[in-house]
Amino acid sequence: MNHAELSTALLDRFVRFARIGSQSDMVKADAGVFPSTESQKTMAKALVKELESLGIEVSMDENYYVIARLPASPGLEGKESFGLSAHYDTAGDAPGDNVNPLIHRSWGGTPIALPGGFTLDPAKDAELASCVGHTIVTSDGTTLLGADDKAGVAGIITMAEYLLAHREIPHGPIELMFSPDEETGHGMDRVPLAALRSKSFYTVDGGQEGELETECFNAWKAELTFTGIALHTGHARGRMVNASSMAAAFLSSLPAQESPEATDGYYGFYAPIRIEGGIESAKATLFLRDFTREGMERRIETVKTLARAIEARFNGGKVTVETAMQYLNMKEKIDAAPDILGRLERAAARSGVSTYLKPIRGGTDGSRLTELGIPAPNIFTGGHNYHSRTEWASLEQMTKMALTLIELAKEWGS
Ligand SMILES: [Zn+2]
User: Fold this and answer.
1) Given the residues 148, 149, 161, 182, the one annotated as active site
2) Catalytic option among 25, 50, 89, 213
């Protein structure tokens, strides 16, 4: 298998996987259904079949986590094992069944009109503009493409196929994990930690070529309960305290310039997610996001201070604040094991990829894994415009991903 054959195998595998609808469902996942959809089970079974057909040892547990193992090259059995992980569900933000991938070979750089009515315009998409001459894969515009994260799934399996075809490449034991429900935030809820042999993992779930991710938000949720005093509105003067008005006043007291709509890069935010209520009682849910611990403490303190200010304004009203951690920035734990990122950067460089670190304005399976004691930075896949009908992937960038994974295997074997 040479690099051209690797590229062909990768494209074929990616397109086949993209055609298998496997959207996850946030509502069902929050209600405890796992995996949240039947279609994910179909996808998981297809992955088991694919890995078996390549002669790779694979198992699937009752929660549909698929774990495969590549044994070490002869003589390297004692090398430390490392893992690669990708999620096989796709996002619920755009239609995801009956995906019809379209392949635009040697794309010339003109806008790509999708039959479903959407256009990919390089004038409005700098990452697309950087891919003139590439083979671009899109959906037909009626669905998302599912490069998030089937590009990662296909890349990992194609790396394994390549290593099997090139037994002369020395590597240690490698663990491959394919998991459900990343998009619902429940991807690592039932991860079979005891079954994993690797103390270091990489998630293969990023975007633009070269992009590596080692830090994400610290995430907290704040639940506020506003309690008022209900009275007939006809004789409420001076006596009624309206909980809905309290909630509205609280939300409008949040700094507008620290909202998701107004921030990017390393800036955190307060995001009202849900509000409901009546006169006697109202509830508001906020997401708090910040890259630093001190920043997060400040945000929690701010929410409590603003809540007390609302109590002072609405005489007789009460506000309670409950906060809960959702996930943590993985940076501290990844920085504590610099070898994991170091090996990745060397592997990428040897594949001709210039890397850069980018903060994730969200959480990943990798941040959850890191919290559970397995540091897991994130690697680019070559997919773009995730969660939309204009999602696309560059075959050249996907190939660079697979080559980086092959070099990573060599790194861990050396
Ligand atoms: Zn993803």
Assistant:
1) 182
2) 89
Identify the structural domains of the chain with CATH numbers, from first to last: 3-215+329-413 (3.40.630.10), 218-327 (3.30.70.360)
CA distance 70 to 410: 13
* pLDDT for 185 beyond 90: no
Helix axes of 3-19 and 147-165: crossing angle, nearest 10 degrees: 140
First CA to last CA across the chain, in angstroms? 22
Those residues whose C-beta lies under 8 Å from the C-beta of residue 183, and which sit 6 or more positions away, are 23, 24, 26, 87, 89, 90, 91, 92, 148
Query: What's the gap in Å between 257 CA and the centre of ligand 1?
Result: 28
Q: Please report the DSSP string for 143-160 in residue order.
A: S---HHHHHHHHHHHHHH
Residue-wise pLDDT for 53-105, tens only, equals 999 999 999 999 999 999 999 999 999 999 999 999 999 989 999 999 999 99
d(CA 91, CA 383): 14
**Residue 354: which of 211, 210, 214 has the closest Cα?**
210
Distance 168 CA to ligand 1 centre (A): 33
Residue range 260-273: mean pLDDT, rounded: 95
Query: Which tokens in the block code for residue 226?
Result: 């506003």
How far apart CA 18 and CA 15 sit, in angstroms, is: 5
Distance (angstroms) between ligand 1 centre and the Cα of 74 equals 34
Structure tokens that stand for 54 in this block = 């390549």
Distance 56 CA to ligand 1 centre (A): 24
To the query of whether residue 365 is one of the catalytic residues in this protein, the response is: no
Tokens 């806008």, residue located: 111
Look up residue 165 and give its two tokens: 């075809």
User: What is the predicted pLDDT for the residue at 142?
Assistant: 98
SS3 347: helix
pTM here?
0.88
Q: Which amino acid is at 117?
A: G
CA nearest to 142, candidates 109, 101, 112: 101
Q: Note if 89 is an active site residue.
A: yes
User: What's the gap in Å between 29 CA and the centre of ligand 1?
Assistant: 16
Query: Do 89 and 23 meet the contact criterion of CB atoms below 8 Å apart?
Result: yes
